[in-house]
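hey can u check if this looks right to u? its 75 residues, i copy pasted from the old doc so theres a chance i mangled smth
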Amino acid sequence: MRITFDNAAAALRNLPATDSVDLSKLVDVDSATLAVLIAWSAQSRTRGGTLRYLDAPPALRNLARLSDVDGLLGL
């Protein structure tokens, strides 16, 4: 799975249908990836749910920590 600036708009329109997302196959993380994950979490909360992110790769965890959103994403 790859979320980049090129496909972020499409990804934003496709909120996961489940309450958890497996991120273990995520590659090439960047700020677009974080933006989509944050937006998905917000959309889920708006609908009364909670979206959990599972098996986040180290690169995503590091970027989220540096961006101070790791707590927001539950990483």
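The chain has a mean pLDDT of 90.
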